[in-house]
C-alpha cells in the first residue's frame, strides 16, 4: 500500500498527461500514440488519497477522474504555459505527457497542397519545441518559490535506456524518472523502471497502469524530506 506523504498538509499535485498535437495546417498535425492513461491514473490515485490535483491533459478520450481539476491543452507550448501556471503553488509535478519534440516552423492557414504539383517528395521544416520539464525545473518560477518542487519525469527509450534515463534525471533536475518503452504508448499494461536521484531502482514488470500509478504516487512520501 502506498504511504501518505510525510508532511501532514494536503499537497497540490500537478500531472501532465497524453500527447500534444502540432498542426501543419487546419486538418493535419504531428503527434504520437499516447493515450494519457498513465497520467490520468496518477491523477486519480493522488485524488483518492485526498491530494489537490491539477491534471493538464493533451487531446485524449478519457473521463476526468473524480475531484480532479482538469486543464485541456493541444500544443506543447500550451502545455508549457499551463504547467508554469500550475506549479506556482504546487508541491509535486508528475510529467507523464508525451510531448512532441518538434513542430512545423509555420502553420499553414489553408490545406497543405504539396501533392497537387505532382511531386513525389515534399519537405516540412521543423523547429524544436520547448522542453517543458527542463524549463519548469530550472525556470524563474521555481526560483521564487519558498519550497522545492518535487519532480517525477518520464523517459521513453528504445533498447537499454537506463544510462540515458539516469542522465535525464540529473539534467532535468528531477527526483525520480520513470523509464518505459514504446509499447507503453496506448497500452493497458506496461513495464517500468523507477530510477531515483538517491540511486534507487525499482522494476515493475507487466503491470496495469493503475498499479504503477499507486507506486508512483507513493513517491510523494519523499516530499519535504
Can you characterise this structure?
By secondary structure, the protein is an alpha/beta fold. The protein has one domain (19-102, 124-222): 3-Layer(aba) Sandwich (Rossmann fold). The chain is 24% helix and 26% strand. The chain has six helices and twelve strands. The protein has helices at residues 37-48, 76-86, 132-138, 140-143, 162-171, 209-217, and strands at 12-17, 22-23, 29-30, 52-57, 68-72, 92-95, 102-104, 126-128, 150-156, 176-180, 189-196, 201-208. The protein has an eight-stranded mixed β-sheet, sandwiched between helices. The protein has a two-stranded antiparallel sheet with strand order 2-3. A two-stranded antiparallel ribbon has the order 7-8. A hairpin with an 8-residue loop joins strand 10 (176-180) and strand 11 (189-196). The longest helix has 12 residues, at 37-48. The radius of gyration is 18 Å and the shape is globular. The two termini are 20 Å apart. Mean pLDDT is 88; it is low at 1-7.
Please give the CATH architecture: 3-Layer(aba) Sandwich
What is the CATH topology descriptor?
Rossmann fold
Uncertain regions: pLDDT < 50 for 5+ in a row?
Answer: 1-7
Mean of residue pLDDT values: 88
Helix content: 10-25%
What is the total tally of β strands?
12
User: What is the CATH H-level superfamily?
Assistant: CoaB-like
Number of helices: 6
How many domains comprise the coordinates?
1
Beta strand %: 25-35%
The best one-word shape is globular
Structural class: alpha/beta
Span of the ends, CA to CA: 20 Å
Name of the top-level CATH class: Alpha Beta
Q: What gyration radius follows from the Cα positions, in whole Å?
A: 18 Å
Which strand order spans the largest sheet, edge to edge or round the barrel?
Answer: 5-4-1-6-9-10-11-12
Largest sheet: number of strands, sense, barrel closure: 8 strands, mixed
Amino acid at each position: 500500500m502506498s504511504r501518505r506523504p510525510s508532511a501532514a498538509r494536503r499537497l497540490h499535485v500537478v500531472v501532465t498527461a497524453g500527447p500534444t498535437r502540432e498542426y501543419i495546417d487546419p486538418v493535419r498535425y504531428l503527434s504520437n500514440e499516447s493515450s494519457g492513461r498513465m497520467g490520468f491514473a496518477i491523477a486519480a490515485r493522488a485524488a483518492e488519497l485526498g491530494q489537490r490535483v491539477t491534471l493538464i491533459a493533451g487531446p485524449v478520450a478519457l473521463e476526468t477522474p473524480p475531484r480532479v481539476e482538469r486543464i485541456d491543452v493541444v500544443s506543447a507550448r500550451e502545455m508549457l504555459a499551463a504547467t508554469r501556471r500550475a506549479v506556482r503553488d504546487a508541491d509535486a509535478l508528475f510529467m507523464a505527457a508525451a510531448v512532441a519534440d518538434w513542430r512545423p516552423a509555420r502553420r499553414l492557414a489553408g490545406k497543405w497542397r504539396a501533392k497537387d504539383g505532382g511531386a513525389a517528395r515534399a519537405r516540412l521544416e521543423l523547429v524544436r519545441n520547448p522542453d517543458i520539464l527542463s524549463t519548469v525545473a530550472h525556470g524563474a518560477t521555481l526560483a521564487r518559490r519558498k519550497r522545492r518542487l518535487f519532480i517525477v519525469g518520464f523517459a521513453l527509450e528504445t533498447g537499454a535506456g537506463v544510462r540515458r534515463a539516469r542522465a535525464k534525471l540529473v539534467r532535468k533536475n528531477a527526483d525520480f524518472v520513470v523509464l518505459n518503452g514504446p509499447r507503453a504508448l496506448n497500452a493497458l499494461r506496461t513495464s517500468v523502471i523507477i530510477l531515483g536521484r538517491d540511486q534507487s531502482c525499482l522494476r515493475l514488470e507487466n503491470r496495469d497502469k493503475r498499479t504503477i500509478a499507486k507506486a508512483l504516487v507513493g513517491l510523494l512520501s519523499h516530499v519535504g524530506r
